[in-house]
Design a protein that fits this description.
Length: about 475
């Protein structure tokens, strides 16, 4: 194999990768990398000068992601991993600033799992639509840096400005930005508007691709249910939800599928709408594993003030479970009853389990859950490990689940979990608005079968996303 010095090393590699031949790609790496390590050779000079301007989308996603694993180039062997061709995605975003969800999800597609230029997902960003350009906007900078077109409509982003749908999936991030709130305190992020425009485009051009919706659906119930029904009607592979369900936990606990859960208490913090969705979905991803699978919720109530503590004092909610969960996320558990902002989401499942999630801003510093499993002594409790470095790593594991869906065409875990959590949150905030009325919720009789999808540090970020 000869590398012509004047042809450009990166162009040579790209042609081999695009040919779809894993052996050729591996040979390129095994023969080509030593050449790049010879600084006095003309091909090395040319490669260094040209690859400085080659985008990561074209170079790393097309070459390194295909034949470099865990940052180490592996020579061709009989056991060499197969070539994984990156799938393309369109991003539909409310806003893109450093630290926002757009940054820690889309930024990982552009700049690697750690957003340091290293190995990343087998995805490439084909286009973006951004609803609001803030004074801290990163979208224009990143679009220019990585040669990603920005479009002024969702339809044009999904079609990449063409007369067809060339992308393999869509990531919709209807979070952050400046949007109004309703009387229930729900920020009216445009998640339904985004999903409606995306799926209208599918209808217009006659092709459906997988869609991920960041965080909860809705946020109001009618919108959440509309999104779910539209996805089912059009047979859109659909995922949604919180990164907490796939992030690391401390300590590790065992909640086997099909176990019997006698008691469940969750703790959350911060705003009722913005973080209530996280606390409820973290809670749900544990309790859905109980025997008989999920059958839904038949009533929901929100409590505040002294009324919060009555279920604990009367033994309706286990004090031991409450303190087991609280001890993992608070350094001042004895002062919890002095909190003026404490809120209880109380809900009853159709199979008899009582759900209790305490939102404790100012007292709790994280999200946790405690469970009593039948046949076991005491309680098992864990908290979500909310690390910020490198670049909010739990979003890497969320993106891994998204990557898997886009490569397989099947959701990695049921969107019904997010639908149910979204419904509980909406009904709890409605109860609060209606002076803490208990609301019967036949609409939340949502049945689904959970799957045994792992959480960080599994699956490995460099694992094959096409293996379902």
């Amino acid at each position: 194999m000869n590398v012509t010095p004047n042809s450009g090393f990166e162009e040579f590699v790209r042609r081999k990768v695009e040919a779809g031949d894993p052996q050729s790609a591996a040979e390129v790496v095994s023969e080509g990398l030593p050449r790049l390590q010879q600084p006095d050779k003309p091909w090395a000079v040319e490669a260094r000068s040209k690859t400085a301007d080659v985008t990561r989308r074209d170079w790393l996603a097309g070459v390194a992601a295909a034949v470099v694993w865990g940052g180490v180039a592996r020579p061709a062997t009989a056991d060499a991993p197969k070539l994984i061709k990156p799938k393309s995605i369109a991003a539909v975003l409310t806003a893109y600033e450093k630290g926002l969800h757009a940054d820690v999800l889309i930024g990982k597609i552009l700049e690697g799992w750690k957003q340091d230029g290293g190995a990343g997902p087998a995805l490439k960003l084909a286009s973006m639509y951004v609803d609001q350009f803030t004074d801290k906007d990163l979208a224009r900078t990143m679009a220019k840096k990585y040669d990603v077109p920005l479009f002024n409509t969702i339809e044009r982003a999904v079609t990449v400005g063409s007369d067809r749908i060339p992308v393999d999936g869509v990531i919709s991030i209807g979070e952050h930005g400046s949007y109004p709130s309703n009387d229930k305190g729900q920020v009216l992020h445009p998640r339904r508007r985004f999903f409606e425009a995306i799926t209208d485009t599918f209808k217009k051009y006659g092709r459906v691709v997988p869609v991920f919706n960041d965080k909860h659906l809705g946020p109001v119930w009618s919108d959440a249910k509309w999104m779910y029904d539209r996805a089912r009607e059009m047979q859109v592979p659909f995922m949604a939800g919180s990164s907490m369900t796939v992030g690391a936990r401390e300590p590790e606990i065992s909640v086997p599928l099909g176990c019997e859960i006698e008691t469940a208490v969750g703790i959350g913090y911060s705003g009722l709408d913005i973080y209530g969705s996280h606390a409820l979905e973290f809670f749900q991803c544990h309790v859905e594993r109980r025997r008989g699978a999920e059958t839904g919720v038949n009533w929901v109530q929100c409590l505040q003030g002294d009324a919060i503590w009555k279920p604990l004092d009367e033994g309706v909610i286990s004090n031991d479970a409450f303190h087991a969960a609280l001890s993992l996320v608070s350094s001042q558990p004895n002062g919890v009853r002095q909190s003026d902002e404490a809120t209880l989401f109380l809900f009853h499942y159709n199979d008899g389990l009582l759900g209790a999630v305490f939102m404790l801003p100012g007292v709790a510093r994280g999200t946790s859950v405690a469970l009593k499993l039948k046949g076991q002594k005491g309680y098992v409790a864990t908290r979500f490990e909310e690390r910020t470095e490198p670049r909010h790593p739990h979003f890497a594991y969320l993106l891994k689940g998204i990557e898997r869906m886009i490569h397989t065409g099947r959701s990695s875990y049921p969107v019904e979990r997010t639908l149910l959590s979204s419904g509980i949150l909406d009904r709890a905030l409605t109860s609060r608005f209606l002076k803490y009325e208990k609301l019967m919720t036949p609409e939340l009789g949502i049945r689904y079968q959970p799957v045994d999808y792992p959480h960080a540090p599994q699956p490995s970020l460099d694992s094959d996303p096409s293996q379902a």
